[in-house]
Design brief:
Structural class: alpha+beta
Mean pLDDT: 94
CATH topology of the largest domain: Fumarylacetoacetate hydrolase, domain 2
Number of helices: 6
Strand content: 25-35%
Number of domains: 2
Number of strands: 17
CATH architecture of the largest domain: Alpha-Beta Complex
Low-confidence stretches: none
Helix content: 10-25%
Length: 296
Amino acid sequence: MKLYTYQNNDGVDRIGVGCDGWPGLIWPIEAFGLSFPDMTELIRRISPAQLARLADAEQATEGAALRLNSVRLRAPIPHPAQDVICLGINYADHAVESARFHEDAFLVNRKKAVYFSKRVCEASGYGDPIPAYEGLVDSLDYEAELGVVIGKDCKNVSVSEAPGHIFGYTIVNDVSARNLQTAHNQWYFGKSLDGFTPMGPCIVTADEIAYPPALAISSTVNDEPRQNSSTDHLLHSVAEIIAELSQGMTLKAGTIIATGTPAGVGMGFTPPKFLKKGDVVTCEIEGIGKLTNTVE
């Protein structure tokens, strides 16, 4: 099933459920007799039986469905409890284009995974603007990524156990200010400006996607194809990432891991194709949907 955070005209965040066979409709979670204050609490507290109930539209109150295009979609988790964990250089073709752009700044020869965090004051939703930050940013870039949402606290899990700790998947656009990213030894500042974490349009629960996820991933800018790959090309798999990180830290339920981006980002072109005001960026992952945002 697909889980959404949405708003009606009153501006209050609500949880919505999209059921198989009913495209274009969502049900308020209350229509299934359930209530959670936000998506993070749902992930932490919902039982398998309750999840099963949400998957069946017949269990919802008759007439409660809303048209998806009539609500404002928020990021599924608008306020992550902790920074988003990100993977750098996790597709081989992206490693090549990164080194071509700035060899010293991108750690392309490392055998181990490259981890960094992304500060998220508030994640953006479908249709929310990407700030241009004129005067601060001169090389605004996009990165379509598969986001993995942890479903239960995990510590010291093995690779074989890791898939059982996945709640679901979403799309993350790891918006980046390349001039800030490459000017510092750490990428944190260039990745963490307000509005640099569009996410959504939903979370697809893990039972809907066969493991390991082998999903087409792509992006366009103003309908021009840019990225086109598959998530089965990850250098470090989802299970490897979860297992390694959980050896030294507790991954709390609701943690979001952005697993890296394939080739085709703006800095990968010669000359680079960085974003400018008015550009419309769409990131798409098979089985999850499309995430569209406009630079303003």
